[in-house]
Amino acid sequence: xxxFEEIEDAQRATWAMCSTGWAxxxxxxxxxxxxxxDAIIDSLDIRDDQQHLDIASxxxxxxxxxxxxxxxxxxxxxxxxxxxxxxxxxxxxxQGITNIRTKVCSADDLPFDDATFDSVSVRFxxxxxxxxxxxxxxxxxxxxxxxxxxxxxxxxxxANPWTTIPMQAIAAETALPPPDPDGPSMYRCAAAGSVSALxxxxxxxxxxxxxxxxxxxxxxxxxxxxxxxxxxxxxxxALEQVDRPTRERIRAGVIAGVRAHEEGxxxxxxxxxxxIVGTKPG
Length: 282
Ligand SMILES: C[S@@+](CC[C@H](N)C(=O)[O-])C[C@H]1O[C@@H](n2cnc3c(N)ncnc32)[C@H](O)[C@@H]1O
Hints:
8 strands; binds S-adenosylmethionine; Rossmann fold; alpha/beta; eight-stranded mixed beta sheet; 10 helices
């Protein structure tokens, strides 16, 4: 079992490697994950002067959307990988968003005072934290009494063909080690109630969860391969280790796999996320 420090180092390296893909496919990713960002934001009751913290912000969502809803407020975007936050800052500059700042830090060791923020968001970050319980205690600590945290995770792989199609094509050509149940992986928080239990253990109340559908849409099966092979972290890491002929066979497998999802000149592959909201008592 790697140490927390080794997990963080590996995550930092992985996301540095994926960052070019997140910048290149920004619009496709935004369209896919937008409904989850909207659901998180709806659950947080953002005010004009909201003080908001976005954890594992990556290329900036949902933090940048919160900043637009809170022109008199302030949003801090945090992430372990500076390369991802650079993309967030560039997106903010392009959109003319000035009420944000970025901070490189790990979710389980936040450099903020107690009771600083009205709300916290964590879109698709939880499963990568070395210590998910400590991270949740940190979210509760930096929230003001009555403040809310909302996060999202992926539910079971069978409900997410957008990622299982490429991972099955990779598994058909390589010997992928089974994911460590206690280590970072895309489906580490898939079990119903797993994040709710972390919230409750950290003293959060009124914990509720619900599912949100997403669709990854591309212009063609070939573009689908480019999108997933360049930004899905587990695919990017696995593909780094294969030779060119193997990569070509995996590419062919992914393209064949998504043909069933071609419709009206587009490829649309579905998925399902779970959002979890909780409140700091007080
Ligand atoms: C799937 S991306 C999510 C980005 C963004 N929130 C979104 O939904 O578009 C996951 C992010 O988690 C970050 N991450 C991984 N481990 C982390 C940790 N221990 N603390 C903070 N961020 C972490 C990665 O660097 C990456 O940017």
